[in-house]
Write a structure and sequence with these properties.
Blueprint (H helix, E strand, L loop, with lengths): L10 H13 L3 H14 L4 H13 L3 H14 L4 H13 L3 H14 L4 H13 L3 H14 L4 H6 L1
Length: 153
Amino acid sequence: MPNRVRPDRNVDDLVTAAMAKLQASQPADAEKILRRALRKAPNDLNANNLIGVLLLNGGRAKEATRHLNQAAKADPENAAILDNLGVALSLAGDIEAGITTLRRAVALAPERTEFKIDLGKALADGGHADEAIDSYRAVLSGEPSNVTALNNL
């Protein structure tokens, strides 16, 4: 019998079901479940963040920004959400807003090297080569063999 999502599930159950679909490499099913969750609770932090990441990973950065903005409004101090939003904004063409958002993510979680790498990429894409190099060097100061940072220098 196929695993169907019961219509009476609450939003948290739907988000959990969507995560299971993602882990099973079924992003289209996960997106359908998340859209159902968002119909029930349009401002839900977890549903907006997860669908935003799903859309971002699927090459739909502009659409992802709407959901990630909603998640960031719900938790403006969440560095991971801000990093996702900054990447989405940059890929959607709003590079300066992406850079600003990524700077905030790095400030909130300076230990997260992947945030510094994302910032470096956005800075490079925005024509800020010197600042991009600084961001990659900041990664290398803590992780001298970080391949991504080394390749981007």
